[in-house]
Amino acid sequence: MSHPHPVRDARRRIQAEHASVIEGIDACADAVAEPWDTSRTTDREAVTDGLHRTFEETGLLETLPAVLADAVAATDYELRARPVPAPPSVVVTSRGPVLRATIDPGRLVIRFDVFDVVRDSDPDRRPAYRRSNGVRLTVSLE
């Protein structure tokens, strides 16, 4: 059975049933950014490694595949493979965690953005990473 609004249904399920996970992601991002001496860093690894480490320490990394499976269940589509707390299901990027699952209409992508990438007009300068205000949840079908 196909469902007409998989993106909307997945987003609603996450917001309704997984608010504690969103709060945990927010708290982990705060913990990563807290020791910085300015509001941003150009150290991409500090962001990605810091997020990955705090997600592991808090147990969130192991929880994210269940969030992905539940979001897919809300769409009435079937997962083609059991999600795991590693790529391709869960990827920790410099912006935050990304969850991905292939379903019949395409790839469901769920982003929890907690850092903004700030690019300089000078192409020789590395991008900076700035803590966002909260968590931006984006769900798309690609």
From TrEMBL:
Query: Can you tell which superkingdom this protein's organism belongs to?
Result: Archaea
A Pfam family recorded for this sequence? DUF7988
The DUF7988 domain is annotated at: 9-142
Q: Which InterPro entries match?
A: DUF7988
Q: What is this protein called?
A: DUF7988 domain-containing protein
